[in-house]
Amino acid sequence: MTSVNPHFFMNLSSSLTTLDLSESALRGNFPKSIFRFPNLKNFYLSGNWNLTIDLPSSNWSSPLQRLYLGDMDCGRRLRESIGDLKSLQYLFLHCNFEGSIPASIGNLSQLTLLALYSNNLSGQIPSSLANLTQLTYLEISNNQLSGPIPASIGNLRQLTGLYLISNNLSGQIPSSLANLTQLSSLCLSSNNLSGQIPSSLANLTQLTSLDLSYNLLNGTLPPWIFTLPLLEYLYLIHNQFQVPDMFSALQNLAILDLSHNNLTGKIPNCLPKSLSVLNLQANYFDGNIPFGFPEGCGLRNLNLHGNQMDGLLPRSLVNCSMLEVLDIGNNNISDTFPHWLESLPDLQVLVLRSNKFHGSVQSTKESPSFLRLRVLDLSNNYFVGALPVRYIENFNAMMDPHKDGGSPEYMMMPTATNSYQYSLVVTWKGFDYELQRILTVFSSIHLSNNMFEGEIPDVIGKLSSLKGLNLSHNNLTGHIPPSLGNLTNLEWLDLSSNELTGKIPDALSSSEIVK
């Protein structure tokens, strides 16, 4: 970690045009005289956590065009004097500023990028932002801004990205946003916006990403959403929508997430061939799951958890060779175990819980299958027979102990702007939880509340990465295999309500994880 020497920079004051000290482990106080260097146009100082810099309170004369300050101490408030930097084109400030956004920012008429995300800014979005007519990118996400979205934002006709995520904005989405015909990303999620989506937004034909999740929006989704020609990512999670039968019109759509709404009716049979993620969790869809998954289907995540679907699980899912997550839990599907899913090489999460599946769960293939499976939930069905030893002995992904350390990694699908995090409902220690993100090291087997019989196979003891194992409420007999003591990563083990006999193995007898 290096201290800042103010005199070093003074020697460069007349000639310096660009200064980039990002992530340089600087500490101490950075001289604010840097802002008065006569030729400095580009200043980058982000990622110096122990560095302090005070922005001048007045008389800025710098010709700065690009200013990036983030992850450092820049003072508590963003001063009105920021409006003196009339040459600024890029302004990026992520410094935990408090208070309101100064109206003087509207004086920065040359700005093309304004990013004030992840501060503690409060108050309303100033109407003076409407003066920034050259702006192409505006992000004020992750603050505490309140009040309505100013209709005057519709004056920013050059905008391609508008991000107001995770604030306390309220009121309706202004119809004036229809003037932003260059927009490719409109992200207003995690606010308190209400009412219906304005029909005028049909003008936004350049949209590739639309995120209105976690608001209070209602009404029937306007049909034009399903005809936007370039739309790839549609997130409408946790609202109060009803949906028309027009999914198939979105021929470029890669992600469709309508989870946690009040959607009713049937899922259309003709889904966009471009879909990678279809998440309709926690709605009221009924009828059969669409049966026409075509050859070359690109689905990676199909989540229909918590609806009222019935009928059979469509065999055409075998055409979705890239499928990683299949969650149809909490429906009314009546079928036998889908052995044909053995052919899906990338399947990692299989959730069939709380349906009407029946019959035995035994492998029909000689070759290994389900090699990458890490989460298996067959609980609350009518399965019978022995536990599926042939499958269990091939659960290679559960045999990797995954040493702790390093940054956590999550199951996700990369997108052009960010990534889509997979979610999952799990039963853990008797309670249901929705994991908003799934760690790649998470693995569990939940087979409770069926009619499995016979002994617990020793091979389960090889699944060294297991975090949870629930075999309760079955008809299992015999002894608890000592090999379960090898499951050193186990956090929860439930073998209750069976017909097991004998002693609890020494390795488990003193454990608090056993039920």
UniProtKB/TrEMBL annotation:
Subcellular locations according to the entry: Cell membrane
PROSITE patterns with a match to the protein in the record: LRR (PS51450)
What is the membrane topology listed in the Swiss-Prot or TrEMBL record?
Answer: Single-pass type I membrane protein
Q: Which UniProt keywords apply?
A: Cell membrane, Glycoprotein, Leucine-rich repeat, Membrane, Receptor, Repeat, Signal, Transmembrane, Transmembrane helix
Record's superkingdom?
A: Eukaryota
Q: What are the Disease resistance R13L4/SHOC-2-like LRR domain coordinates in residue numbering?
A: 80-261
Q: Which GO terms describe its cellular component?
A: plasma membrane
Q: Which InterPro entries match?
A: Leu-rich_rpt, Leu-rich_rpt_typical-subtyp, LRR_dom_sf, LRR_R13L4/SHOC2-like
**Which Gene3D superfamilies does its entry note?**
Ribonuclease Inhibitor (3.80.10.10)
Q: Does the keyword Transmembrane apply?
A: yes
TM region(s), chain numbering: none
The similarity annotation says: Belongs to the RLP family.
UniProt-recorded name of the protein: Disease resistance R13L4/SHOC-2-like LRR domain-containing protein
